[in-house]
Fold:
Amino acid sequence: MTKDHYISKDLRSGIISGLPIVFGYFPVAMAFGLLAKNTQVSLRDSSLFSLFVFAGASQFMALDLIQAGITAGNIILATFLLNLRHLMMSASLSVRLKEIKKYWLVFIAFGVTDETFSVTSLGNRNLSVPFLLALHGVSYASWVLGTIAGYLLGAILPVTVQSSLGIGLYALFVALLVPEIKKSIPVLFLSLFSGIVYAVISYFRLVPASWSLVITIIVASLAGVLLIKEEATEI
Amino acid sequence: MKNYLPLILGMMAVTYIPRLIPLLIMTERPINPLLKRFLLYIPYTALGALIMRGITEAPPNMRLITLVGISAAALCSWFKGELVLSVLVAIVTTFLMLQF
Structure:
């Protein structure tokens, strides 16, 4: 095949891999748009949140904190802590993106979310620039358009449809993880242990809520390094 | 209405920079094997934590439904191994449960 063929094949594969994210993001973004409107945030600023920040959990948190009258500085700090997990995710991705040119990484980095990271990391895909840009691009478009649609149109989707599609995002995580668990006991250990650590940390409030995810990821991955035998790590 | 642009730009910086820095500096040189193992475990530990968060942070009346919905995805994924199908099964299962 020629180079152009590879590019269009990877673009298509990126778009298709992104579809579960597109359908999951849209209703969640609509909910964000509507909630932003009800929090008295202008249409321009609501759209800019999604256009510039592109981080679901922290955008919802920001609305919550705005309503509670928290200062911008403190909201930014909380966002930083909450999104430190993406530092770990980007670090993990870097192992597999050594061949990619720096200037592409500047664009690719913007689209590293829990969902895109999960799709890129699992399932043994060929991580080319067209694949990554297409996957991130369709996810981003869905997030931004969903926000604007939610702001302008309100709750046009019935609540039951919204919740079902929202749960689809967690189903995506599960459906990505299960085939890996099937192949490998260490993966079962890592994910199960991490889930338990998260449950314990958040239930007993051992760390501030915005720290829970990143601390869990560090603790569980470290435990993996210490407990899993090296030869078992071809995962 | 209040102007939230400074807040948005601040949030953008603290979100984008942590996503960017590791990609720029860690792709440069070979890394220590222990660190590499740590990094390769992250997808699995991140997913374990995210899934647990999805269940524990669901509103109380949605918790059981969330659990059943994602279990449906897990079963479908285990037996069929089809990503999109598993997600659809979860969405449809959840939707049906919400009708009653």
